[in-house]
């Protein structure tokens, strides 16, 4: 396994430590691979999500033989939840997304059992607002996360965006574009680093967190981000912006219909942030 999976491995290792025997009866009830997000519901009523990595997988074209490797969702019912979560360490894009979604459902159970003493949970809060950017801050966005780019432009906040595919940016955003392979030179200059959770899928998160300067305020954002913050906090992340799925059945139906965050936020899922307490104290 590459070093890029360290956060996933540490998170998976923490789950049985926290849940103990409670984990034994946790199984998969349903899994949905949607156009934008993948979701998994467990038999305890909790659910988790992950971005669907459509652009990075061969299954995005019609009928390849490699599609046989996909975890057919109907075959997952009754599978031990932690067993499915281990797919987060696999090489296959879709299998990894399903595994991370299962891991995130278990992470919600972990937070309810043992909230992290160094993190404060805030419900209904947007990660952008929690980042509390100040005038003059140098901001770097890793991944073309549309809500963040829109808000940065609205506030006239200078920023750079690291992205693998410049086609995802609007024409007026291209002057701020930097190729992803320039991360090592761009990220260390930032006062605020905003990183999309999809970096967990492509194994780049570890390097990005390591490149941020110690004084930088680092925010992770997206449904792919876990409610089990231990491994993120150890590497310097200050804010984890994700979702808590409040209506799992409705949420999965939305994904099955090709829905995105615009369709499930405020309906079947709510925004939540985990904020490092030391960052809260510093702001105060």
Unreliable parts: none
| Helical residues, percent | 25-40%
Major sheet attributes:
8 strands, mixed
What class would the helix/strand composition place it in? alpha/beta
Q: Let me know the average pLDDT.
A: 89
The tally of domains stands at 2
CATH hierarchy: architecture of the largest domain: 3-Layer(aba) Sandwich
Reading the helices and strands in chain order gives: HEEEHHEHEHEEHEHEHEHHEH
Please name the CATH topology of the largest domain: Rossmann fold
Termini gap: 41 Å
Radius of gyration from the alpha-carbon trace, in angstroms: 18 Å
Strand order of the largest sheet: 4-11-10-9-8-5-6-7
Percent in strands: 15-25%
Task: Write up what this structure looks like.
This protein is of the alpha/beta class. It folds into 2 domains: 111 residues, Enolase-like, domain 1; 145 residues, Rossmann fold (3-Layer(aba) Sandwich). It has 11 helices and 11 strands. The strands form 2 sheets. It has an 8-stranded mixed β-sheet, sandwiched between helices. Strand 2 and strand 3 form a beta hairpin. Helix 1 crosses helix 3. The protein is globular. It starts with 5 loop residues before the first helix and ends with a helix. The model has no long low-confidence stretch (mean pLDDT 89).
